[in-house]
Amino acid sequence: MKKRYLDTLVIDVPDSTSITILETQRGSYYITAENCTVEVLTPIVNDIKHVLNDAITDVNALVKVALTTVLTTVDGVALTVADVAQLVISLLNLVFGAVAAVLKVVSSLETNVIFPLLCDILGLVATLVQLICDLVSGLLAELLPLVGEVIITVCGALNLTTTYTFLIVKAIV
User: How far apart are the C-alpha atoms of 76 and 105, rounded to whole Å?
Assistant: First the structure.
């Protein structure tokens, strides 16, 4: 297995997926009310799920690695817990922003097939974030104040507050 670094794992997830297709393309939303269908979204969601599953596998492999090694970048720079929190919240904001964009345009006729696709992605993201939090002591405490409204709103809209209780606890207490 090739050596992976936590910073590149978190950065590679959005760079190597269709998340940016969901969010924007040339400054405007690619997914519109006209094309927000299961046929259009399924291949995009499958791509995102594939990359997230790979990232989950890679993070699981880091469990047996010394934390100082995990927190060292490919360039040899030691990351702080706050640095990792910024990487993770950037990933969360990107994914949740893309999902929020889809939620804004999905028709009521398509929600019963689109919502499960979006929930699949966010379920994997929750798993990834929980694994990273388990790996990096103190990370969750750094993340909590960074959680923005889009994450809380999307979790509520998709009925994922239980899945994300660990992250949005301040909003649901």
Answer: 43
